[in-house]
Design goal:
Blueprint lengths: L1 H22 L7 H21 L3 H30 L52 H29 L1 H5 L9 H28 L6 H21 L3 H6 L1 H23 L1 H12 L4 H12 L1
Helix pairs in contact: 1-3, 1-4, 1-7, 2-3, 2-6, 6-9, 7-9
């Protein structure tokens, strides 16, 4: 379960890092959320090392921290690049999926949008390159199903392979954790930072209707936290083990609940997002409608 959790989080973090590199943009990442995450991950790493928790928990804490640093570096680097070389970028899509209008009928590229700290958490990135032709609903649905299935199969395979590889080491057993007050304080700080980082996102989703959120990433985040909690509980259920690991259990367990709420919001607002997208494509005036017809005929 521990190694399956690592595989889940590799999938979660790989997507934004690769998208940020591919699109040369960090406009949709909020530095406020990344700062909270980094602080939580650093305290998580320090607490898990001091407390001597199971190896996969420590490895994950280190991986979280490294990925946060990479994302923050990308945000600063690509925002600086956008500011110094605006000619390389086309209009950035807003949260409703529409590009900002051109000013005064000018055909020149508009100024690049300024990143907002209210940008959706784990959102899809604003592309500066011409967008690919949209897939049909059936093809998009099939693509999503394959993405989910492929990711979950990978997670299961990694967990099984790691279990076989570590079978001999697991037979030796492990030393029961000893309470460390300093480590516990740091662990509880990390837990509350993790839980607190989700609350602004829940409030923001009510305004944005979850536009721009990556459903796939949240699904794998739930999977990663679930296997993370399972790895701790399956190691031992002794009162001492549960007490020592309480901050990590609460931090991940509470995040699972909050991420499920986010997924619920995503489903609940699906109809409103679809209606808004359709309304945005409707012409406002009769001349606009004829122009749209002319474009379709062309």
């Amino acid at each position: 379960m521990g190694w399956a959790s690592i595989a889940s989080w590799i999938l979660v973090y790989t997507d934004p890092i690769l998208l940020c590199y591919k699109e040369q943009s960090g406009e949709s990442l909020s530095l406020l959320f990344l700062a909270i995450w980094l602080t939580g991950d650093i305290t998580n790493l320090l607490g898990s090392v001091w407390q001597g928790l199971i190896p996969t928990v420590i490895i994950l804490a280190l991986y979280y921290t490294v990925c946060d640093v990479i994302l923050i570096f990308q945000v600063f680097y690509y925002r600086r690049k956008r500011r110094l070389h605006p000619e390389l970028y086309q209009p950035v899509a807003l949260s409703d999926g529409l590009a900002p209008p051109e000013l005064n009928g000018s055909t020149s590229a508009p100024a690049p949008a300024v990143a907002s700290e209210q940008s959706p958490l784990l959102s899809s990135f604003s592309a500066h390159a011409p967008a690919d032709a949209p897939l049909s609903p059936a093809l998009q649905r099939a693509r999503n199903i394959l993405s989910y299935a492929g990711g979950f199969v990978l997670i299961v395979i990694v967990g099984i392979v790691a279990w076989f590889v570590n079978a001999k080491a697991a037979q030796k057993g492990r030393v029961e954790e000893v309470w460390d007050t300093t480590a516990q304080v740091v662990g509880w700080i990390s837990a509350f930072l993790y839980l607190g980082s989700r609350l602004p996102q829940l409030a923001l989703n009510r305004k944005t209707k979850c536009a721009g959120l990556s459903l796939l990433m949240f699904a794998f985040a739930v999977c990663g936290n679930t296997t993370y909690v399972a790895s701790i509980l399956l190691t031992s259920t002794s009162p001492q083990h549960l007490l020592v690991n309480a901050p990590w259990l609460l931090g991940s367990g509470g995040t699972i609940f909050l991420d499920l709420v986010v997924l619920g919001q995503f489903i609940a607002y699906a109809k409103e997002r679809r209606l808004e997208a359709e309304a945005a494509r409707q012409p406002i005036f009769a001349d606009d409608e004829s122009a749209v017809d002319d474009e379709d005929e062309a």
